[in-house]
């Protein structure tokens, strides 16, 4: 093990501090897996005086994020700031200076991803973001590597751990306010949870998956979305009486003209894998031409899960540096094609007359058949036939 690399971190909040601490404490294991020695050279923060993990020496911290990016001895920049206000400029600057970037910032990538990927490709570096979708679930890696030679036709899942935590707590009898407070105490929800509970976060994640799986430059503002703030305990109770659960579903299907996509709370049959999510658990289903239906599930929120995904990307980047790969040819950094159309997806779903404001999700009890181009209503439930229509199954 001769090659070495420098690492810089932007931000030291819940995720950033966990990543930094593990880079220091688990150095031997990470270097063994990657085959590359590394040095954590700097961590950009807003407050240098704040108490940090004992593994992080005070000499690592700086309030000058630009100095981290401009340090010629730093090869990998880990962005943990979040949002787009400062992160956009810093990530663009890092890529432009030839730094590999690892980020969990789905807001940034869902709105700037195609442009940043183009910069990365032009500079021969990578922009990795496994942690931006699904926490510890390796959905990005699966699409980027395992399914790189296949044609992905549809993606669907439960991608927001905050909403799942709130809805499952309401199933246990909590009201919305108490369920949200519990999610915040567990670290699944931010102090301002609107990004999660109003569906923005799930739309950001879906946009990223569409960019990667379909190679289409779809930005999250083009995806119709609604959140869970209007869901009541009565809705939850009535759904359970009908053998259904309510979950925030994000789904996209490739079409000849572009994409059909939607994010909304839906009624899901109780025996469906989407309905079985609890707490901050996420589940992703991918439909590919040759591989068929694949499903991944696991922790989708919280510092440890996100930090695990970030470190996975760091190890992969270090490994590629050690093997001296030409990273400009990575699949995810290719030029994305424009989507001619981003149309709603859930309008064609059936509805139950007792909960007509919520559509019913079903993919034929797990049997995926895109050739049928139809979503059926849950077996044994009366549905409003007037609302049924054609819709590819995912």
Q: What do you see in this structure?
A:
This protein is α/β, with parallel strands linked by helices and 394 residues long. Helices cover 33% and strands 20% of the residues. It has twelve helices and twelve strands. The protein is globular.
CATH fold-level topology of the largest domain: Dihydrodipicolinate Reductase, domain 2
Which CATH class of the largest domain is shown?
Answer: Alpha Beta
Low-confidence stretches: 326-333, 364-392
Series of H and E elements: EHHEEHEHEHEHEHHHHHEEEEHE
Mean pLDDT across the residues is 85
Distance between termini?
Answer: 45 Å
The count of helical stretches stands at 12
Shape category:
globular
Beta fraction: 15-25%
Helix/strand layout:
Elements: E1 4-10, H1 14-25, H2 27-34, E2 37-44, E3 61-62, H3 65-70, E4 76-79, H4 87-96, E5 100-103, H5 106-123, E6 127-128, H6 139-146, E7 152-158, H7 161-171, H8 176-185, H9 194-197, H10 200-214, H11 233-241, E8 244-255, E9 258-269, E10 281-288, E11 292-299, H12 303-322, E12 341-343
Parallel strand pairs: 1-2, 1-4, 2-3, 4-5, 5-6, 9-12
Antiparallel strand pairs: 7-8, 7-10, 8-9, 10-11
């Amino acid at each position: 093990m001769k090659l070495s690399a420098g690492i810089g971190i932007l931000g030291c909040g819940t995720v950033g501090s966990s990543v930094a601490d593990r880079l220091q404490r688990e150095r031997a294991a990470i270097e063994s897996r990657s085959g590359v020695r590394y040095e954590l050279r700097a961590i950009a923060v807003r407050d240098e005086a704040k108490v940090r993990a004992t593994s992080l020496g005070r000499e690592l911290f700086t309030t000058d994020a630009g100095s981290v990016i401009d340090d010629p001895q730093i090869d990998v920049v880990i962005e943990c700031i979040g949002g787009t206000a400062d992160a956009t400029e810093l990530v663009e600057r890092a890529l432009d200076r030839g730094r590999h970037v690892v980020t969990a910032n789905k807001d940034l990538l869902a709105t700037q991803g195609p442009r940043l990927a183009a910069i990365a490709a032009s500079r021969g570096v990578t922009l990795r973001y496994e942690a931006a979708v699904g926490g510890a679930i390796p959905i990005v890696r699966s699409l980027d590597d395992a399914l790189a030679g296949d044609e992905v036709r549809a993606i669907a899942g439960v991608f927001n751990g905050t909403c799942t935590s709130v809805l499952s707590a309401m199933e246990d009898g909590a009201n919305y306010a108490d369920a949200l407070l519990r999610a915040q105490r567990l670290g699944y929800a931010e102090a301002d949870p609107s990004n999660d509970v109003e569906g923005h976060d799930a739309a950001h994640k879906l946009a990223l998956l569409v960019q990667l799986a379909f190679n289409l430059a779809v930005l999250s503002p083009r995806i119709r979305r609604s959140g869970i703030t209007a869901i009541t305990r009565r809705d939850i109770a009535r759904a359970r009486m009908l053998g259904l659960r309510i979950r925030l579903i994000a789904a996209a299907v490739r079409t000849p003209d572009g994409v059909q996509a939607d994010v909304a709370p839906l009624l899901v049959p109780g025996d469906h894998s989407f309905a079985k999510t609890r707490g901050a658990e996420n589940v992703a289903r991918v439909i590919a031409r040759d591989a068929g239906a694949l499903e991944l599930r696991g922790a989708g929120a919280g510092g440890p899960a996100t930090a695990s995904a970030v470190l996975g990307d760091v190890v992969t980047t270090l490994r590629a540096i050690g093997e001296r790969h030409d990273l400009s040819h990575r699949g995810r950094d290719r030029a994305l094609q424009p989507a001619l159309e981003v149309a709603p997806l859930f309008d064609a779903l059936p509805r139950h007359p007792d909960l007509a404001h919520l559509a019913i999700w079903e993919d034929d009890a797990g049997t995926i058949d895109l050739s049928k181009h139809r979503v059926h209503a849950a077996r044994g439930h009366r549905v409003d036939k007037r609302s049924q229509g054609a819709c590819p199954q995912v």
